[in-house]
Amino acid sequence: AEKACDAGACSRQPWALGLMTGLRGSYEFPSRLSLAIDGGYWMMKRQLRRTVRGQFLENDETVPVHYALDDDIRVAGPYLGLGLAYRHPINDRFAWRSRFTVGAFFSTSRNFVSGTATATGATVPVRLFGGADGIDTVAVFLMPELGAAARFGAWTIGLAVGLAFFPRAGSAYKTGDLAVMVISCDAVTAPTGVACAPRSAA
């Protein structure tokens, strides 16, 4: 789906949004440098709107088909990271923290597709086979962070903002074919109708 956007076939391609929950444990050295280990669960979602153009041959006539598709891409799974941080004191209680984390994201990706097919002036809904089948991937990510922390006795409470980078592209998501959702095709009276369109690659 996202490769279609690179070719200019997407009319909507917002950024992926997600939620990360987890736990972090760290040890700080006297130099204010600290090591941390992270673990938790990560969920991301991206919705695309794209067009796919196809055609089929019927009675020696080429019939163009226009597919308007909405992709609901979901990626979720556990993650594990190892980080290096430095504390920049403001006073005895408050401090800035900068951190850099390298981690692995053990994700499962799914693409739920809905849409329509249009040909010869008629429009029908389409179905994607295999869209709910998940693909498992292990992806390395890099995450710089900047935040603030406050000490209350033996406890430290902090808030940080991070930006995750994935240096390598993930595995290609291979779905099945698109098929029109109609009961039957009237090959006698309307052989070039959209209901007669065969399965097409998404």
Structural class: mainly beta
Helix content: under 10%
The major beta sheet can be summarized as:
10 strands, antiparallel
Which residues sit in consecutive blocks of at least 5 with pLDDT less than 50? 187-192
First-residue to last-residue Cα separation: 8 Å
List the main descriptive attributes of the protein structure presented here:
mainly beta, ten-stranded antiparallel β-sheet, 10 strands, elongated
Please characterize this protein's 3D structure.
By secondary structure, this protein is an all-beta fold. It contains 1 helix and 10 strands, in the order αββββββββββ. The chain has one helix spanning 2-6; strands at 10-12, 17-28, 33-58, 61-89, 94-119, 122-128, 135-152, 155-162, 177-180, 200-201. Strands 1, 2, 3, 4, 5, 6, 7, 8, 9 and 10 form a 10-stranded antiparallel sheet that branches. The relative contact order is 0.18. The model is unreliable at 187-192 (pLDDT under 50).
In short:
By secondary structure, the chain is mostly beta strands.
What topology does this entry show?
Layout: H1 2-6, E1 10-12, E2 17-28, E3 33-58, E4 61-89, E5 94-119, E6 122-128, E7 135-152, E8 155-162, E9 177-180, E10 200-201
Antiparallel strand pairs: 1-3, 2-3, 3-4, 4-5, 5-6, 5-7, 6-9, 7-8, 9-10
